[in-house]
Amino acid sequence: MNGRLDRAEIVIVGNGIAGITAALEARRLAPEKRIVVISSQLHPPIHTPALKQFACARLEREQLLVHPAGIERQQRIHVITSRVEEIQAQSQYLLLSGNRPFHYGKLLLATGSVPQGLPETLPGQHFDGVLTLHRLRDYLDLRRRLPTVQEAVVIGGGAHAVETVMTLLYWGIRTHWLLRGEYPLSRQLDAQGGALVRETLHRAGAIIHQGIEVVDIVGRIGVVVGVITNQRKMIPCQLVLVCTGSRPAIELSERCSMPLCRQHGILVDDLLRTNVPNIFAAGDVAAIRDPQTNRYAPRAQWYAAGEQGRIAGAMLADRPDLTRPLLGVSWHATHLGELSLLIAGNPHLQYPGIETLTDASQGGYRRLALFEDRLIGYLSLGHIQPDSLAIKRLIEEGHSVRPILKALLKGDVDAHHYFARLQAPPVQALPLINSQPERQRLPITGKLALTPEQLPLLAGSSPTGPSPKVPAGSSAYSHHTLWSYLEQKERP
Amino acid sequence: MMQRPPRTEHGYPLLFFRLSRPLRRSVLRSFAFASTALLLTLLWGSLTNDVAPDSPAGYLLAIAGTVCMLLALFRYSIQRRTARRFAGMLNAALHSHVAFGFLALFLLFLHGAGNFNARSGTYALYSLLALILSGVVGRLLDRILPRLIAEEARTTLTPQGEDRQQELLAATSSRQAGQDYQPALQAPWDLASLPLNTPLHTDTRPLSKMAQLLELHTFQHAYRKELFYSYVIRYWRLFHSALGLLTLGLTIWHILYALHLLLLH
Amino acid sequence: MRKLLRMFAPPPAGLHKTVSHIAQEINACIGCNECLLACPALSEPITIDVLNHATVHGPITESVAHFARSCYQCGACVPPCPVGLHRDAMMLWLKIRLLQE
């Protein structure tokens, strides 16, 4: 069947969470269209964030699947295992390996990301025992080796490196963690937060080396035996794990006959359209707009990739009316050892008018960025993970957080309960018969502007007809207001 | 070959029961344990007439009962905190906890053999009995209250699962403003507003407004009941744990008393 | 002392969530299975893909239905979640669906 298949209305390159979600959503909205997913990946989509649990042997392979096995067949989604060599955008066809053309009506690029790895010039990186952890086969390899390893080195300072260190400690392996900077997650955390993470890992048993870079990897008869650092120190080990982050897999987009605009990823608008007609991009490979800063960057997170897949699916099925409003602010939540990390929005934004509050009590660390009464960013490191999606929503909807400021600082906020209170005023305060409604108590509707294009809705000029005006002094808030304010500050 | 779509289960009866394989295993294991203990007790009882608490038989029963009690008290908590777990392990541990608890009560009753002179022992036994009863009540609450929570939550949701209160609030306010009813949009990430066939609230008679206000009151009441049931589940567990600690304390007191008597002799 | 108190403190109880929020949480689930490992009501192994698929709109299989009925709503599944999701609210939605059907 696949041998004769050479065209489809909807073609998706990449079989990760963004790709499969787009395929399922497109099938739901366009039951009649032919949908094909082309990928060189040999297995169905898996929960890649759960690979660390797999490495700890807390999960088996079958438990990694995102969807029940056989869902592609059930939904009539054809999967072709092949590599895409180039895109002929004018004639709307792909060239697969073996010079096989494949015509598309609409194309989604969901090629994901590739690991940064080690510098090309670093000697010894090809010894057996040096693993760059990214895909399932890397973790399968790791899991086979772990029972035989006594000492290991982890290179990298991000969340992935932290999780890898914890995995090795779980197995009782003596673990050296090499950090280039003074503290881990230097892009997401400030010095205080980073120091807390470092201390937590140190207490868990990791041997942390700060300000260290690997200059050489030494081996014996093809197998790694240790690393040499810039301080001319040799750290013996049987395993070197490289967790230096990832970058968007844009190689295919560079082989497109019509140039695709790129900026740290394939540039897309709010509906995931690239600059080339009928080509979309979603997932780790797409550079999307941050509604708070208007900057474009890939959002390499599981949830963001899934949501982008849903939007892309609606666009592929010609249903832009069913796309959700923007993904919202960036959001990342995970466990780092015994600490729970949550970063929502931009907690490190520093501009006049933005108030920064921190709290380091109860063995954790919280950092809030406030603009007037609204939360711009939230960073929490603690023993309990707050309701992270509710906090994300707090930022996006621009509610006043003064009533729960202390709870946010202490890290024991029940954001969902706060929403219930915001949206359910006491019955006594409800509009009575023959009295004027208290519009200010109306729940925040989905018409809150997150983009400049949506701003006219706030002013009452809805394209569908007159809509209730949001009165001055209400809890409505526009990110556009913040952006304009910040822009004005930047201008000389 | 076309696969048949999986059958959808229906219903939520109060007295649901399913003899799954793990439950069968737990029951058989507990039964084997209890039978062995009973057989040994009967055997010992047939060999000697002295079953007083401070006889060899009594001491044996006390040790066995205390070991069962300690296993019931601590094994589940330890397994809950262990890093190496598999799905279903805690459920099996919970069954063991129940089985060891009943076994401990049985063995310690036999140890007492109707002798309630020692105050510490009597208090420890009563405390253990209260602990077991609180566990039984807790299991009943665990069966009944979640269903009640689901029923309360259901009254506040539309058949599609959205919040009825929000719709009612929006309908009440927009109708009073004299505008056409517009369905309230939910959170910004919702795919769409209400289905097109949602009935419009055009009835403006005062009686219907009062009915809507009463309905909102019902929602608030349902939320409160839901939270109340949730907290009963949680705090009953805390109460059960507290009783467990009390029982342990009283048992230690009784053991110290018994040791004191032994040393005196 | 704080650790001791934390050991005994019951997990906070929250209100139910609407299906939109449940769907959002399902989409955010990373499939680590920590919630299932922490659950004292789960007797037979269920994979997270089957559970997530059944929760919002999919058909409820026999094993998922039994799990949903058995769930005590104790909240033990919430603290282990690395992403801060509420599996108890998702299970409650399954219970509501079973009641509705």
Describe the protein.
The complex is a heterotrimer of chains A (492), B (265) and C (101). By secondary structure, chain A is α/β, with parallel strands linked by helices. Chain A has four domains: 2-114 and 247-322, FAD/NAD(P)-binding domain (3-Layer(bba) Sandwich); 130-244, FAD/NAD(P)-binding domain, CATH 3.50.50; 331-421, FAD/NAD(P)-binding domain; 425-490, no CATH class. Helices cover 23% and strands 26% of the residues of chain A. Chain A has helices spanning 17-29, 51-55, 71-74, 136-145, 159-170, 191-204, 302-316, 388-397, 405-410, 415-423, 455-458, 479-490; strands at 7-13, 35-39, 77-81, 84-88, 93-96, 100-109, 113-115, 130-132, 151-155, 174-178, 207-209, 214-220, 223-229, 234-236, 239-242, 246-248, 266-267, 279-281, 286-289, 296-298, 331-336, 339-345, 354-359, 365-371, 374-382. In chain A, the strands form six sheets. In chain A, strands 1, 2, 3, 4, 5, 6 and 18 form a seven-stranded mixed β-sheet that branches. A five-stranded parallel β-sheet of chain A has the order 8-15-9-10-11, with helices on one face. A five-stranded antiparallel β-sheet of chain A has the order 21-22-25-24-23, with helices on both faces. The model of chain A is unreliable at 426-483 (pLDDT under 50). Chain B is mainly α. Chain B has a domain at 22-133 and 237-264. Chain B has helices at residues 21-47, 56-81, 89-112, 119-155, 164-176, 206-264. The longest helix of chain B is centred in the last third of the chain and has 59 residues, at 206-264. Residues 179-204 of chain B have low confidence and may be disordered. With 101 residues, chain C is mainly α. Chain C has one domain. In chain C, 52% of the residues lie in helices and 0% in strands. Chain C has six helices and no strands. The longest helix of chain C is centred in the C-terminal third of the chain and has 14 residues, at 87-100. The chains are: A alpha/beta (492), B mainly alpha (265), C mainly alpha (101). Chains in contact: A-B, A-C, B-C. The interface between A and B is medium-sized, with 35 and 35 residues.
